[in-house]
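Notebook B, p. 112. Complex prediction, attempt 2.
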Amino acid sequence: MKKNSLFRSLLTAAVLSVISLSFTSCDNEDSGPSGAYAENGVFVVNEGNFGYPTSSLSYYNKGTQEVQNNIFKKENQDRPLGDVAQSMAFHGDRAFIVVNNSNKIEVVNRYTFKSEGVIEGLSGPRYFVALNGNKGYVTEWLPSNPDWSYNNGRVSVIDLNTFTVLKTIQVGLQPEKLLIAGGKVYVTNSGGSTITVISTVTDAIEKNISVTHGPNSLVLDKNNALWVLSSGFKNWQADPSTYSAAALTKIITTANEVTGTYTFPEVSAGASKLVQSGAKDALYYSYGGKVYRQPIASESLSHTMVIDKNFYGIGVDPETGYIYGGDANGFTGDGTVYVYNTEGTKVTEFRVGIAPNGFVFN
Amino acid sequence: MARFPFIKVWLLGCSVVLSHVALAQQPDSARHQLRTVEIFGKPAEVYAAGSRVAQLDSSYLSTYASGSLAQALQARTPIYFKNYGVSGISSVAFRGTNASQTAVLWNGLNISSPTLGQADFSTIPVTSFGDVAVQFGAAGAAYGSGAIGGAVLLSSPKYTSKGLSATIQSEIGSFGRYFGNGSITYGSSKVQTSTGVYIGQAANNFKYKDLTQIQTPEARQENAAVAQHGITQDLTWQLAYNTKLALHGWYTFADREVQPAMGSAANNARMQDKNLRLMAELEHDSRWGQTEVKAAYFNDYLHYTNTSTNSVADISTYQLQAEQTYTHGKRWSLRGGVNLQHFSAESSGYAGEQTENRASAFALLRYDPSSRIKLSLNLRQAVVEGYNPKPAPALGFDWKFYNDNTNQLSLKGNVAGSYRIPTLNDRFWIGAGNPDLKPEQGWSYESGLRHLFILGNTLLLETELTAYQMLVDNWIQWFPDATGRWRPVNLFRVASKGVEAGTKATATIGEAKLSATAGYTYTSSEQVKVYEGSGDKGKQLMYVPHHKAILGADATYKGWSVLSNLNYTGLRYISNSESGYLEDFILLDLVLSKKLQLQKSQLILTLRSDNVTSATYHTMAYHAMPPRGYTFNIRFIIP
């Protein structure tokens, strides 16, 4: 009897796998991506309220100008995305959504947003980048101490075939955004003043580059120069006289050396959310609660204010150059996304989910 | 740590006084009564004619004696409670306002946490007070700051028995619940004293469906255990025929694991509350009327920890209230008084110890031009350094315009101004100071019809229909500024309006006593003006149900009694944009009890089932609540 049921389950498994294989091959025969979210559009990551699984993803179709909210929940049997969606990254056919206070990364098909799996066992994950289809890296803060201070964070190396953690690498305090350039992972340690450089071959730290205190975001420009934005030292518990100014730091990735530091004038003003134009020749960021643009060709800080408004998230459309700003609306209601042309004139606006903190363009 | 010896000293003092009085055996003198209340009705209504007041029956409260005030009120009043899971904070919302816009008074003095501006109803056990009245609307502003949406008035029991009496009860329930309490009361013509203790715990390890996981697997609730204990001590002493001294002591301790939302990282959050409340009350009658002086010391200690937080708030509050009531004939009553408060606060979020003083003066007038018309006029003015609120006036009337043998019809109305002083956190939190912050101001208008139908001793039917409109301006909420720094701001003006209908029937047929109560409220509460950010004008505020209805029924026959509560709560939005919501739910509770007479004593056996239908419901987003549970309670009363 027992043998018989084992045989039956084996047979069922075999039949199922054949069926699923045939479906997979059908998909592969399609030319180009297809799916509800494959068109020319932008995804908005809505962080939600801390402590509640109220984060969500919105999709804005640039062609039809229609907004669809809660797309993850809609495509996944009404399952909520989780508690604090910090960021989303694409690689190949997949989207990786880092859900900070659920300690997980949701992996979905980037065209259908149907779940492909969950990477669990993380601790305060923030940002993710994939090297290829097999390996990715995620920054994690780890829990803070009871006095709200932090110990060193880590970068976990993820096996993208099994969705398991292969290795953890201790980095600096509160590691934030990261990117891969020239076979190396560059990690901003936002609680300190270094960029950690990790080899993607050995997954070991190669170097720590000193920058201005509080590096939180970075981009790689068209000349393969790395631009790092630092907030300067700011702490609500500390005396404002101990604060230091924010700055942009330029790093040449061939030598991993700092070649320029552009310090911002106002010491009390913070800076964050560095992004760049589609041509990778202009930097956009938030400084003192306004959006500024700095051309990469400039040898000094020559930035101009583009939008006189504070945003919780900033994105630049690589195609049109339009600037997207997410307004968190005090976290009590749905946020609004404002769209501006390169001159800073508002083009449109639309409502999304709670606390829009980032944009990913198709 | 100095608190525990303090309790011992307090108890010791009480017992010394008690034995002294018992030995002296002073002659009887008529028990003193408040003349004003005798003439003008329920305390909460004397100077608030036309306002809506609901009182919970003492027999109903005794059924829920092992529960929290939140449980008792949730089942029988149309007030909405936000329970942050089964073990977390339970906060109240009246007429579309929020918890800090509700005043909670104990024997007439405000006991809301000075740091948060609200009271946690899950740490107030039903055993620790005698009566609870719920006053809707701003008429309660006569009691001071915070009574914008309504007020919950707790009072110590009125002891009338002579000699020694005692009660002891023990309870066991589903999900690892145990509860026990005992009280002992002694009364003579001169002195009444009572001591009560309770201890309870619940593991709250129930099973629920985890809606945030693929395939919604069943999970067992973790980090939701609760342990509570406390003591109450009351002493009233008739010093002379016209002078009475009362001492009230109340200590509650709660150690709770804070239940996380489904799918949120486990952070081992834990909260320890210790609340000590001591009060001395002196009443003296003279030809100038009644003089009442209350002095109180409260200590509120809250220790919150999780994997990344360790925060302590320890606040001492000193209050002094003196009032004089002059009653002229049977038509006029005038009360005037002052209230002084001193706060001394230490908190992990403040730069060292912070203090604040508040003062207010009030004048309350009640005039009954005829036996059918009651009028009241109040004025209160508070003075707080940096935050002087506008005066809070109130005008009310109650006109019994029809009266025959069986029917009485009254028209009521009330207009009241109210205010709320910013909390100590609003004022002192490091880096959050906002010098432009103004107190909240409220205006409420209400009018209602009350119908009484009396059929001799067999049937009493009491029906009330109220409509209200309310404006709350300078609504305070923490909001990030342009640099992302969170601080309190006057965020919006909210308009709320609604209808409240309630009816209560009591019938006696032979040996059977039946009573039923039904209530329904419609609430609309929305932002009408937004001072910062984009806001969400014209949308229902989050966690305010449009509809709530309750149905309760009790029947007693020959020592048996059956009680049921049915509670319908409509859908609630979980953000101010009406985008996400929690489904509506119906909860049914059933109670069966049997009273056995053992000579003079009584033994009461009670079996209760909460959430009989095992409904899945949430009062805060994705915080699991228990399925059907049972409790068995045994109570022994020595009269």
